[in-house]
Each structure stands twice: as structure tokens, then as C-alpha cells.
Amino acid sequence: MTAPERIADKSVGNQMRKLIVLGAALSALWVSGCNTMSGLGRDLEAAGAAVASTAEDAKR
Fold first, then answer.
1. How does pLDDT run along the chain (60 residues), one tens digit per residue?
2. What confidence score (pLDDT) does residue 29 get?
3. What is d(CA 26, CA 31) in angstroms, rounded to the nearest whole number?
4. Contact predicate 21/29, CB 8 Å
5. DSSP state of 10
6. In this predicted model, what pLDDT tens digit does every residue of 24-33 receive, in sequence order?
7. In the chain, how many H helices and how many E strands?
8. Distance between CA atoms of 14 and 46, rounded to whole angstroms?
9. Whole-number Å distance between alpha carbons of 48 and 40
10. Is-contact 30 37, C-beta < 8 A?
11. pTM for the whole thing?
């Protein structure tokens, strides 16, 4: 194998390593994002209930 071929081979290996690390990082963010979105959904539901309650009180 010539020097340029070895350099190209290492470059492909480095790109693959970067892709794997990026994929792992995105997966971790996605999993933590699910928990965050679930909490956000509960917060929005509670806020909606509070607004609905206030609207009912204002009608009376």
C-alpha cells in the first residue's frame, strides 16, 4: 500500500469514527429529549387546565 492509500484509508476510518460518535451523541440527546417533551406535555396540560378553570370562573 502506498502512502497516499494509507492516508486515504486513515481518513475513511476517522470519518467513520466521527460518524459513530455523532450518532451516539444524537441518540443520547433524542432519548433525553423524550423525557423532556413528556414533562413539557404535562406542564402544558396543567397550564391549559388552569386557563380553563379561570375561564369557567369568569363566566359565573
1. 565 556 556 676 788 889 999 999 988 887 777 777 778 788 889 999 999 998 888 887
2. 82
3. 9
4. no
5. H
6. 998 888 777 7
7. 1, 0
8. 48
9. 12
10. no
11. 0.46
Please give the Cα distance from 59 to 49 (Å, whole number). 15
Helix (H, G, I), strand (E, B) or coil at 33: helix
Say what the pLDDT of residue 11 is: 72
Spatial separation of the C-alpha atoms in residues 54 and 46, rounded to whole Å: 12
pLDDT of residue 56: 85
- Expressed in angstroms, the distance from the first to the final Cα of the chain is 86
Q: What is the C-alpha separation between 10 and 4, in angstroms, rounded?
A: 10
Running DSSP on this structure, what letter comes out for residue 19?
Answer: H
Q: What share of the chain is helix, strand, coil (3-state, %, to 5)?
A: 95, 0, 5
Largest alpha-carbon pair distance within the chain? Answer: 86
